[in-house]
């Protein structure tokens, strides 16, 4: 029994450490987003404020990067999903030997480092533009186009993997039966295969959008002089961070939670609809409950609650609290300065006075020639200092001052 209790304690401690490691940074960032301190921190807590959200939305460079990221992300989704679907369909139709070679070719871009992809994209499109005589203002040297092209080269492979996983559960005899009954290949694709792939299409679109949005290694080269949301965040962190990044984390966490709850409501509704009439009448028999459990209504309620909390928090005025914090800091600084002055006075009082200097002037090496009264009229010249015997010269006195006088 003690062994079981010890094992349960170890499992509980491990779970606690795991969730603390997983969610601890998120909780810290959420707290620091509402602290008025100019550096992201929890302690010491200063004032509750929402000014960092204003700082985030007031950053023009960051907002411009966000717009660029959205444009590039939509373009990547529009290209990568059809290309990935085409690659998955091609792999499902060819023979085993060709499938292995084709799969290696299509999956290789994922294995190449993003730095290599970014540099190779610039080199390839730049060389192509120069070969056709395009100037540097053309599309071949445009950062948005190069980023779109560079990201599609490997993000399309992600979409292909999603479609391959879905196609493994598809029964090809369904399309064969449709073709035998007179349907064209296009009709069989639109009415049989495409509805079956609809969940995979949504997953692939969402995955490629996120992969494009958060990509840095390739984008930092291909965007050239422009910027995206990710590159702007990286440069902001590199040059000094502030709690506006924590405010961004709060927004991302809120959007993620709302999306997860809406998806859960949609999943449960679809499950109830598949269980039969009894379950539907039990859960959705009440009209009010049926409306509240609808995914759209869940989304509306969550957005309304989030908007209400945001509006309520934005009405809080932190100026009085911040002024009080500033006054306290000034008072503490004055106290420390006064304590330092007191220590200096105490040290001076404890130090003994230096001995008085002698009345006579210090002996000069110039024989008193520079004394203040040496040039006064009638004053006797200062006695010359006794000559110091010179050290014998190694040249026998040949260079002595009187050695050249005539005898």
From TrEMBL:
According to its UniProt entry, the protein's GO biological process terms are: transmembrane transport
Give the bilayer topology. Multi-pass membrane protein
What would be one Pfam family of this protein?
BPD_transp_1
State the family named in the UniProt similarity comment for this chain.
Answer: Belongs to the binding-protein-dependent transport system permease family. CysTW subfamily.
Q: Where are the transmembrane segments?
A: 12-34, 62-89, 101-125, 145-165, 192-213, 245-262, 283-311
Give the top-rank taxon of the lineage listed in the UniProt record for this protein.
Bacteria
Key word Membrane present: yes
The UniProt keywords, alphabetically, are: Cell membrane, Membrane, Transmembrane, Transmembrane helix, Transport
Q: Which PROSITE patterns match?
A: ABC_TM1
A single cellular component GO annotation: plasma membrane
Residues in ABC transmembrane type-1 domain copies = 66-263
Keyword check for Hydrolase: no
Q: Which InterPro entries match?
A: Bact_Polyamine_Transport, MetI-like, MetI-like_sf
Q: What is its main location?
A: membrane
Taxonomic lineage: Bacteria, Pseudomonadati, Pseudomonadota, Alphaproteobacteria, Hyphomicrobiales
User: Per its record, how is this protein called by name?
Assistant: Spermidine/putrescine transport system permease protein
Q: What organism is listed for this UniProt entry?
A: Roseibium suaedae
Q: Where is this region: Disordered?
A: 344-407
Q: Where in the cell is it found?
A: Cell membrane
Query: What residue spans carry the Low complexity bias annotation?
Result: 349-393
Q: Which PANTHER family match?
A: PUTRESCINE TRANSPORT SYSTEM PERMEASE PROTEIN POTI
